[in-house]
Design goal:
This protein has 130 residues and is of the alpha+beta class. The protein has four helices and five strands, in the order E-H-H-E-E-E-H-E-H. The longest helix has 15 residues. The relative contact order is 0.16.
């Protein structure tokens, strides 16, 4: 499969929640299509059957800083380089659009992956509604 990660790939509102659920996350159905209107840009990849198999986005004010979120790869397509290609493409688009700092949060088990993608560890804070 050719890895053609497409910025602002046309995506139906139900596709990302379905992909989120396939990896064991909450679908967050009410976030879509609103997310597409509010984030700076997103990227996606479809397989030969036109099924969405990869998705991620960067959101922020569109100035110097952006936040990367929802790096999702379909379980049947993980560990094939798609995740790294997706992150790389999002970072290229961030640089192209003038974003100089991209942050993200992730589970500790993904630390090596994001380090391999060029992210440096840093201290941060997190607030979550209880």
């Amino acid at each position: 499969m050719v890895l053609e990660i497409v910025i602002n790939l046309p995506i139906e509102p139900k596709e990302v929640p379905t992909l989120r659920e396939l990896v064991g996350w909450d679908g967050r159905h009410s976030d879509y299509p609103i997310l597409f209107e509010r984030c700076n840009f997103w990227a996606g990849l479809r397989d030969d059957k036109n099924e969405l198999i990869a998705f991620g986005y960067i959101a922020g004010m569109g100035l110097q800083h952006g936040y990367m979120e929802d790096i999702i790869i379909h379980p049947q397509h993980q560990r094939k380089g798609i995740g790294k290609a997706l992150v790389t493409r999002l970072l290229e688009e961030a640089e192209h659009s003038g974003i100089e700092i991209v942050t993200l949060t992730h589970d500790k088990k993904h630390e090596a992956f994001y380090s391999n993608c060029g992210f440096a560890r840093c201290s941060a804070g997190l607030w979550r509604k209880e």
